[in-house]
Amino acid sequence: MPTKGFPVHLTSSVTELVAATQCEYGAARAYELKQGWRLAPCGLPVGQHCGDQDCTVHGADEMLTRLAQLGDAHEQDFLAQLQVRFGREGVLDASDFSAQDVLAAVAQQVPALFQVPVRTGALVGRADFLIRQDDGTYAVYDTKLARSAQSAAVLQIAAYADALLQLGVRVSQTGYLVLGSGEITHHNVFDVIPVFELVRQTYLDLVARLDSQSLTTWGTLEQGGTGLQTCGRCDGCEEQLLPARDVLLVMGCTAGHRAKLHGVGIFTVEELARVCVADSLEFEPGFVNSTGIRDNMLAALSAQAQLFLAGEQGDPDGPGEYRVIDKDSFGLLRAPDSDDIFFDFEGDPLHTEQGSTQWGLEYLFGWCTRELGSDGRPWFNALWAHDRVAEKQAFERFIDYVLARFTGSPGMHVYHYAPYETTALKRLATQYGTREEELDHLLRSGVFVDLYAVVRSGLRTSGRSLSIKKLEPFYADALGMSREGVTNAADSITAYADAITERDLGNETEFERRLALIQDYNRYDCESTLHLYNWLSGIAQDQGVVIERAEYALPEELLPEHAEPDPTHVALREFIDHAQHGGQFHELETVVARMAWAAMDYHKREAKQFWWDHFARLQDPVEDWTGSEIFRPIRAEVTDDWQIVGRERTPSRILALHGELEPGNKLRPGAKVMSVYDAPAPDGLQESATAQRKYNASGATIEEIEPVHGTDRVVMTVKEKLPKDVPEYSDLPIGLTPPMPISSKPIADRLQEFGVEVAGHVQGKTSTGQVDLPVSARTNLLGRRGAVVEIADEQADSGAAGNHDWTPRVVAALVSDPHAVVAVQGPPGAGKTYVASHVISELVWAGWKIAVVAQSHAVVDNVLSAVVKNGKLSEHSVGKRPGSGQAPPEGTSDLSGPKAQKFYAQAAGGFVVGGTAWALCADNFLPEGRFDLVVIDEAGQYSLANALAVSHAADRILLLGDPQQLPQVSQGVHPEPVNESVLGWMVGDDATIAADRGFFLDQTWRMHPDLTSVVSDLSYEGKLHAVAKTSGRKVDNLAPGLHVRELDHLGNVAASVEEAQEVVRIITELLGSQWQLDAQTPPRPLEAQDFIVVAPYNAQVHLLRDHLAAAGLEETAVGTVDKFQGQEAPIAIVSLATSSATEAPRGLEFVRNRNRLNVSISRGQHSAFMVFSKHLRGAIPGSPHQIEEQGAFLRLCAKR
């Protein structure tokens, strides 16, 4: 056996390969153990069994054993399905096949093969299934018990696909995972293969460096270690942290922090502790923070390191040390009330039920009270749920119990530890569509109190974790017992699974015994929460903090004696439940009912999520705030104090806020925000029951954002209004947060009407023959029934070099059905707006009444302007209800307020009008007899719920947009996908819309064929092509297509000087080059305005502008991708700015998102440049979707 390098006979699994990308040290040790170079911790080689169940190498993991058994059964179930589909002889067992046998079976067009042996390099394995597709290719199918696709599983099917390709099998571009939920996910294996190749090469490079005579040791080369990358979290790393005194011993220190600390020579706890003066957050004299970690975070880590050391020096049998770091945080506690309860869940994430694709079950709702039982312990109550019907009932009973207790004792609270309990309650309320308003009110009233929030903000302990189990030693005397039997969540899950097995076998006594053990564990957790509250209250008293009694009253409509459930909700929910539990209905009938039910509360859920996030920010540390509309100033000052300006009625003041914009921040001049104040906050401002901070709900407006040259900082000028009846104050805000949501009542009312309509058709129905769905465009939309009509080619001929005009096809489809839904997917430059304007003009001429709607006024204005530009319609046939303070587009009539009805009355024949969803849902905007057609533009960014709302106004729907460009944004959690884009709903999981659902505009008029092919492969499955005319686009000495400029830079987070310099270099080198649009257009020299530069972060945008201005290129347009949608220039340049995945703010997804790259690159008419750090190529993402995205990026990088 070779002692160094990669043994030729070694076989490796994908899991081992992936592990090497996550932790070289752990993967190296596993490899050495597998090779026999290293002994297991028990002292035996890996091939010998010590018999110790607790051995990390040889011991059996009950959870893993259970998973393996379930996985085998799942694979056999899918095999049985295939045997029914293809016949037993149509599914070959290939477990003993050679490579030639596999090729022979494929040549014979065998429908399916089972357990197919594959090998690629050192990787060997068995593809669970190969199934022949309609196009003659074979797709890899792998069964996985998981409820969602996992990264290793996606890499695995790509590895199998790669091996089969090398063998000579025609492999489908799509691979499939058959999940334990019954769902089958599909993945582009051609995108994943480049990532797999990277993972494989990483592993090969690692093991090539290993040597049996010099085993891997912990630490960097400077520390005397092997120098391998370490994650600090796996078992192998964990056992080395204490001997190495690694900074990861310090609570709160992340792997990212660790890498930055290593970069400045800080490796140990002791070195980190010396950063700050003892017992302070002040840096030691002479220390300069060059770590890249924010000053306040680094100081907190140093203080935590000092406390860790103090804990080590204290009583070894004691609970450890703690320090109060913010006594105000103890104000989150509430005065004790005799009706308080202390709550904890137990759940099984692996629970599934027949006929359902959902996973997970909260099987035990447990709580104790302050009242003592006969055993001297707090009284305990438990609600068990062994299926989803019981889970819903338990949830309702628990919420009703809390409401009843709260009604009788308004000062009571529900205490829990960590956010899981409230998160799970929100999920259950949404999942079952029950008690949503009641739970929301309890949450807003501060009835639920998370003690973890008090501990996290108020205390610092010497331990490595703030889990409640690690805090119990501080109040162990009060707790009075230690954990026995079931002692952790994993034990609880396994014990519950075993209990269910015993029940199914008829062993009721053993079933009850095991449940009792779980219940004891849950009771202990609840009691621990009670004693934690008492301990924290004692600390608060010692600190002089007064714990106030907070009382809130339920709104009258939520009181039990007044609560009346919405009959529409009840009717729809009963129908849905019946369909789920044995009712025989067509899929369309249940889909329409489910969507109507979910859409009714779409806007409530969106608003609830806003307020939940807002109240969380009022409680969370400011440094934890995230989002695209927040700003955390490091310094604030008043530049103009409170005064009444001009004709304004209320005082306002001007603030200058200094700080850094979050990457991807959407704040702009004119944006509305709320200002937040720390305690003690000014009197009269809005407050929350769950936090001590307050906020100015009257709002503030950003007037200017000025970059501070040479830094990443900006100065934000903000005009803040003084709320009514609030005295003037001098306090300064600690941050800006998103403004209050605009009322969506008109839209919600239309969705309520739709729900009532559907409920009237399904209420009380018990079988499909009784259901008579509404005949409408909305029913067709929810059924994905797109109207498509074939017409003679000569009708569609535009007369332009054989290129086709889609207008006749779209018109014919709309005319073909009085309730038509026509979906048009228009890639970049494919003429979507051209099609829209000409379809509208033609139908208005035919007498149609048309409404145009979109997510923003600007998009509506663009369509109407294109209609006007056609020259076929007069101003008396085109109108717009403009936004507040805006004017309608030139050449259109103003339809503000009552003007719309006057416009309709005076219109002779057809007309087209435009507005947002608020306009189309308003009664005073509808013409007599409704519209004939509603056109939704940019429907790839328009929610399905809002589409259902606005389509009340018309008989037909025309959708135009592209889900492959910028996406629809939603912040709420919904039980059905009413939050996804309406065009995305029609397109489904594919990149392009199916021919029987709509039209794909497959020709772009913008890009040269060589650039089109890049975009087509990236986002459109190779189906997008360029019109012939674009092949005449030329730039002297520059090939058309995509050009990659890969730079070597590190340490850049959201702005890169290196990339800014490269962008200037590209433009400077090309300035003056002859540019020719097409063969009929004379060439001319390229100018500064012939370039569009796109960057993901505002910091890079500002930096690019500075560099371009210094080079005399002020006329070059620079911005984030959303600024340039719909625009074009001869050459587009994309600068990704960040140096690596670990440094990328908001993650790598934000930087090289496929949709954003599609929009960015496709701005170019002739060519595009992509400028980025070479270190982005080496990133191995953690999710399947991100792996596909990274693979697509790697394929782009290969197009040099």
UniProtKB/TrEMBL annotation:
PD-(D/E)XK endonuclease-like domain ranges (all copies): 101-234
Source superkingdom: Bacteria
Record region (Disordered): 875-897
Residue intervals of the DNA2/NAM7 helicase-like C-terminal domain: 999-1171
Protein's name in the database: TM0106 family RecB-like putative nuclease
CDD domains named among the record's database cross-references: DEXXQc_Upf1-like, SF1_C_Upf1
Keyword Metal-binding tagged: no
Pfam annotation, one family: RNase_H_2
Residue stretches making up the YprB ribonuclease H-like domain: 341-536
